[in-house]
């Protein structure tokens, strides 16, 4: 079976040569390098947060409320990015917030990607009425603004971390289903799939043995870009009070808490806002590079 990203079979000299070429393309792409390093930094920070955070993110200290960043007059070395209205360390809260953002982004992408891939495979393989019904369902979901749909569902089910992950994952299936359906329609016309059909292979075997492996490149690209939109959606919902609830720390909640003090204590909202921008830009840069290198058709 051919590997879609390289055009050769795995574990062969040709495959290894193509992998080397891919690495060279990455090294020659500023966008790919910058995006990879930004994403790697965020992931490492999220994994090492308990070791990196100087303070307990939920610990109050009324005597140290509204301390400015260390480089400003009145700053404290113990709190490099200052403290909030309850005396909590801003740096520690940003670091712990990264864990929630990464977990929600990746988990929702996995749920949406898995559900969308299965539905897209079913539509592409069975065709006919099944394909028509699924295509109409996809069109319906994509016609509804994503954030409005999520707001409605979260408002009905109630805000919580688990609810947010499931809702963001389930409501993101449509874009995966559309792309995988198209990939399936293309792949199932290839000779090796026709040969497997003539030998009596079931649709399940065709889907998971022959078709799905050749759609991995598209899935990776879509999932990477979906992580960015999911992080933004989580931030928006948390800002509105419909996302993760206190005492869990999220960047959206930090911005919501700090918006009342922008004129006097700007760091409460600016630093978590910078963290969101940095993470989302890194994921977008990496996603654009992967799209160009793995599946240029998605950029058309």
Write the SSE topology.
Blueprint: H1 13-27, H2 30-47, H3 49-52, H4 90-126, H5 128-143, H6 146-157, H7 161-170, H8 173-187, H9 191-198, H10 203-211, H11 216-239, H12 251-258, H13 267-294
Helix pairs in contact: 2-4, 2-13, 4-5, 4-7, 4-8, 4-11, 5-8, 6-7, 8-11, 9-10, 11-12, 11-13, 12-13
Descriptors:
300 residues, mainly alpha, MetI-like fold, 13 helices, disordered N terminus
Task: Explain what the structure shows.
The longest helix is centred in the middle third of the chain and has 37 residues, at 90-126. The relative contact order is 0.15. It contains 13 helices and no strands. It starts with 12 loop residues before the first helix and ends in a 6-residue tail after the last helix. It has a single domain, classed as Orthogonal Bundle (MetI-like fold). It has 300 residues and is mainly alpha-helical.
Provide a brief overview of the structure.
The protein has 300 residues and is mainly alpha-helical.
Q: Which bin fits the share of residues in helices?
A: 55-70%
- The proportion of strand residues reads under 5%
Structure summary, number of beta strands: 0
CATH class: Mainly Alpha
Mean pLDDT rating? 82
Question: How far from one another are the termini?
Answer: 26 Å
**CATH-derived architecture:** Orthogonal Bundle
- Provide a count of the helices: 13
CATH topology, by name, is: MetI-like fold
Helix/strand/pairing category: mainly alpha
Low-confidence segments, ≥5 residues, pLDDT <50?
1-15
Count of the domains: 1
- Alpha carbon gyration radius: 23 Å
Largest sheet: none
Q: What would you give as the CATH superfamily?
A: MetI-like
Task: Using the alpha-carbon principal axes, give the shape.
Answer: elongated
Secondary-structure element order, as H and E?
Answer: HHHHHHHHHHHHH
